[in-house]
Amino acid sequence: MNMHKPPHPGEIIRDVCIEPLNLTVTDAARALGISRKTLSSILNGRAGVSPEMALRLSRVFGRSAEAWLRLQQQFDLDKVRNSADIRKLRRIEAA
Question: Which residue, 64, 53, 65, is CA-closest to 10?
Fold first, then answer.
């Protein structure tokens, strides 16, 4: 049972990293070494955090790359958990 929907990592990047530092999306993208369009896609939930992006976020904003990837993984798993039909699947038991 899922208690709450995990936020997309883009929301966290915006709320915890960009806004408190009064950065524009353009400035943040420049600091991350990516295009404004790429960052905008992440911030708006249209793209996820890849391992490379996790390294960039870690270097520029802190937290470990693993922490950024966990945020993405939690979001992805919740999304699939609410849409995948696995009711007919059963565990295979050892004989």
Answer: 53
What count of residues does the chain have? 95
The DSSP 8-state label assigned to residue 21 in this structure reads T
CATH top class, domain 9-81: mainly alpha
Domain ranges of the chain: 9-81
- pTM score: 0.87
Please list, in sequence order, all residues whose beta carbon lies within 8 angstroms of the beta carbon of residue 20, skipping any fewer than 6 positions away: none
Per DSSP, the three-state class of 88 is coil
Distance, in Å, from the CA atom of 56 to the CA atom of 63, rounded to the nearest integer, reads: 11
Residues 30-66 pLDDT 10s: 999 999 999 999 999 999 999 999 999 999 999 999 9
